[in-house]
Amino acid sequence: MGSFVRIWAIFSLIGLSRAESPVEILTSSSSLGTFEEEDILRVLSRNKTDTTKNFTFVELISSLGNYTIDTEKVIWSDDRPEVHHTNPHYEDFPEKIDFEARRLLQILPPYDPGAGGVSAECKRHADIFHEELAKFTLWALKMYDATAKVPSGLLSGNVNQFGDFDECVGVEGKNGIRGQYCLAYLQLDVDQSRPDLKYLHRLLHSHYAFRSNMTDPGHRVPRFSNINWAICTPASCTAQDVKASLQHTISKYTAHTGLKISLQVDQNLCQVRPELVLSKATVATSLLFVTVFVLTLVAAFYDHCKIPTSELLLSFSLKRNILKLFSLERPQGDIASLHGIRFLNSALLLVSHKSMAIFFIPYVNRTYMSEFLGKPWCLTHTHHIGIDTQLFAISPVLVLLLYKKPKIGAIVLGTIALISTILRFYVTYVKDLNNYVYYGTSIRQLFNTADYSYTLPSHRLTVYIIGVFAGYFLRNLPENFKLGTTTLYTGWTVCSLMFLAALIGPSKMGSIDYVYDPIHAAAYNAFAPIGWCSLFLWIAITQHTGSSNIFLNKIFSWRGFLVTTRISYAVYLTQFPIFFFNVGQTRTADHYEFLRIMLNLKEIGGILLISIVLTLLFDTPFQNMRNYILKKPVYKKNITKSSKVE
């Protein structure tokens, strides 16, 4: 600091000297032993009256050497918490600070961590906090400032307030007080006999896009009806202390009103400044990634230098796997349009998952977001179709039955598909489920839908069996088979209508004023998957047989989709961690804009980059190993046969 002051003074004096202005330096009457701040100010001020004792610039440089800087004297230091344990200026301006503190705290009263039935240590630290806040001590002001305040835009849905996380956990105060950031859940209920309060409540909660309560799980779908409110409190206060003090404070303002607020504070949502400690799981995972990465480099070296080695090692060759990942060569018997169809559904799945993730983020215009999604032209579909591992495991039985006994197999598979469709309709109707996210959907209903229908393989069989039939049909077609013109146009018409029925049919359920009807939900869950897949099935058949070469077929058959197919599984795995990592990094409320939020190029780029890395390090190498292991016995068998012939 002292060196900086000296250099600054020199350059300032150079400027004055070049302007031919008289410069005043410490006069001979100065008896100070150090170069103080007052001296600097006096040096830099022009003396227009007394010119008898002015130094030349050369004399100035020489004179500066006679003065020393007290480097031990601390003017201000922000990296020494002990300096800020109390306001050092309070003794100089006690009356002014007291007056200003009273005025500020009357306008915006501070949260009292010691209110209600809290622990003794929490109460003691709360008293110290209030004492230092009244003195405008910096650490206490930061704790006060970091706590959420009532914002503007409440009727636009701006109810979730995250305060200032970094400011709070950075607090280090008197007597070992440290800042602790707690995120409390508040649930606001109003007197149902008051239509005025009910309407305001509807705006606050953005037309009830979701309905939830305190007991609903909030890890996958947000507790949309709850209000998130940040509290900065001393670390000595437990989650129970925070709940008690906050409940005590809220009750003072809501007593004898039409409002009732219940709250919950989870200990897992109370955080202090974290210390970097690597867990055993983190170390083990890091070692795994490093090992695989080194293995890929070693394999790439052997592959590039053509050094003889095991094919299992070469399965990890980075060079070989990059060429394989970005290869545009089609394997024999490939159905070209399926890669484009897979890309489209993967993209829609990505948008669906992103749509769910953004509900965790606080928006200053959340009510507008809900109204925007409730326009008649905007649908909020969720995905319904997928192939689980269990279905893949039973597929050999289905295919073998159809291959060995085509008629019996067709009857059995058709019956299973019909039963699966009936199951979806029946369970959805009886248990009031819904795959379509409509306004007023409860969190419990969504989880029941997942438990009783969405995650059950028996409810996914219909579309899967349709795919088995399509594969069998294409496999057994005679060479150069072409569909007739009548069949072609009939298929396009029927499949297009079925697709549009699945896409547009449930649009009524996207309205803000929609009232749940189990018949609508059951029909959608039972028949929408069939309608959605019908058009894609017909595209695959017409393209593979060469019966139709319309523009849609050309788009889905683009060779670039071969690459997206190879990374599609990794994209599915990585999108969830990235979405929710970004949600966890949210510090403040955002402003909702559909295109800006959904088309986050940085986020999409991160998903693609990590997906490519995972595909190169894990997916492709293990596919290579599988192919090598499965082909090896066949290779030996052929050698044996040829040797016998000889």
Automatic annotation (TrEMBL):
Alphabetical list of Pfam families matching this protein: NRF
Keyword tRNA processing attributed: no
Residues spanning the signal sequence: 1-19
Superkingdom of the organism of origin: Eukaryota
Domain Nose resistant-to-fluoxetine protein N-terminal: 119-265
This protein's encoding gene: Nrf6_3
Annotated organism of origin: Acromyrmex insinuator
Alphabetical UniProt keywords: Membrane, Signal, Transmembrane, Transmembrane helix
Lineage: Eukaryota, Metazoa, Ecdysozoa, Arthropoda, Hexapoda
Official protein name in the record: NRF6 protein
Residue intervals passing through the bilayer: 281-302, 343-364, 384-403, 410-429, 461-477, 489-507, 519-541, 561-584, 604-622
InterPro entries: Nose-resist-to-fluoxetine_N, O2_lipid_transport_reg
